[in-house]
Design a protein that fits this description.
369 residues; alpha+beta; Serine Threonine Protein Phosphatase 5, Tetratricopeptide repeat; six-stranded antiparallel β-sheet; 6 strands
Length: 369
């Protein structure tokens, strides 16, 4: 049954459901940093399992339509006597066939719980037959099963085996994941050149995450020669699809004049896009730019706004800067208690300046903790 449902900032809709044993939250957002749908499950064991799938090419109405469809489907199955955990697990599996999903991740805690409910023993997924017959999507799905231990024991070598088969048939998401495997050295020897090769294949098909990672390869000179122009090229392609990592890093390129003419206004432009998706480092940089009036009109209240957003996500530099605003009355009224609050949070993360100022009682404050 639905416990609550509401709309929140950044185009987010959140629905809370329960069947008595399992608490379930489904959240969809166009601007959230995961940009798509996230679900959280509180199991009777007390373990919280998070599931995510990404839909970067979908607009807000389409994402919200998916949200409504899932809620309706879950309600129908609950009325028919289904168990919420099993319903959710099977729905997420079915969503892997969607043309809009890049990847569906099903946490092993949920898989194990569903397995215990069904009394299943380890068995080869049904997709293996199709995979062995050469179906690229089935090969990709079987690779995911081995990656997350769904129906089979986790096996990184098998992940690489099946991802490669799908990738060689042009499956972009498999190509991207195969690149990840080579870069991380999981299931195969670490090989930056192979990682770059497979990311390029996926990137050329428009896979945003692969485009971002290929840009990083050119930035670090991993698997390819360093090339700032290529860095900007691939970051831009991913950024234009809404990839927050790429948007942030493209902003850095504009700030530093790396691979592109230096332009503070364009740096702010891309950081704003990433910041609106909840990207903490971009939020921090926006705070700095609004405070300095560099690349954007000086606005101390806006500076505080973005510092706060990053600080609330745990960014130590933002916590320090927000405390400084309270100490000096920049964009907010001076408030010693808030200075201590935010500098203490920064200090607890190892921010040396925050700790030093607390110890010294700078700005008329001292940490009494």
């Amino acid at each position: 049954m639905i416990l609550s449902q509401g709309k929140y900032p950044f185009g987010t809709i959140i629905t809370r459901m329960s069947d008595g044993d399992v608490q379930f939250v489904i959240s969809t957002s166009k601007e959230g940093w995961l940009r798509g749908l996230t679900t959280y499950v509180q199991l009777p064991t007390g373990t919280t399992a998070a599931k995510v799938f990404y839909m970067p090419s979908m607009n807000k109405p389409a994402i919200h339509a998916i949200h409504s469809m899932l809620v309706e489907s879950i309600e129908e199955n609950l009325k028919a006597g289904g168990h919420l955990a099993i319903i959710l697990h099977d729905l997420l599996l079915s969503l892997r066939d969607s043309q809009y999903t890049q990847e569906v991740v099903i946490d092993c805690n949920l898989t194990d719980y569903v397995t215990s409910l069904r009394g299943d023993t380890e068995q080869i997924p049904e997709s293996k037959t199709a995979a062995e017959q050469g179906d690229a999507q089935a090969q990709y799905e079987l690779g995911l099963c081995y990656r997350f231990g769904e129906g089979v024991a986790k096996n990184d070598i098998e992940v690489v085996k099946w991802m490669r088969k799908a990738a060689e048939q042009g499956h972009a998401t498999a190509q991207n994941l195969l690149g990840n495997c080579y870069y991380q050295g999981e299931g195969a020897a670490k090989d930056d050149a192979e990682a770059a090769k497979w990311w390029r294949k996926a990137a050329e098909q428009g896979h945003a995450s692969a485009q971002f990672h290929l840009g990083l390869c050119y930035h670090k000179g991993e698997g390819v020669a360093k090339d700032d122009m290529e860095v900007v090229k691939w970051f831009r392609k991913a950024a234009e699809q809404g990839d927050a990592d790429a948007q942030y890093n493209l902003g850095v390129c504009y700030r530093d004049g790396q691979g592109v003419a230096q332009d503070d206004a364009d740096a702010v432009k891309w950081w704003l896009k990433a910041a609106e998706q909840g990207y903490a480092s971009a939020q921090l940089n926006l705070g700095i730019r609004y405070r300095e009036g560099k690349g954007v009109g000086k606005n101390e209240a806006e500076a505080v706004k973005w510092y706060r957003k990053a600080a609330e996500q745990g960014d130590a530099d933002a916590q320090y800067d927000l405390g400084l605003c309270y100490a000096k009355g920049i964009g907010v009224a001076q408030n010693a208690a808030d200075v201590v609050k935010w500098w203490r949070k920064a200090a607890e993360q190892g921010h040396a300046t925050a700790q030093k100022l607390l110890d010294a009682g700078a700005g008329g404050v001292r940490d009494a903790a």
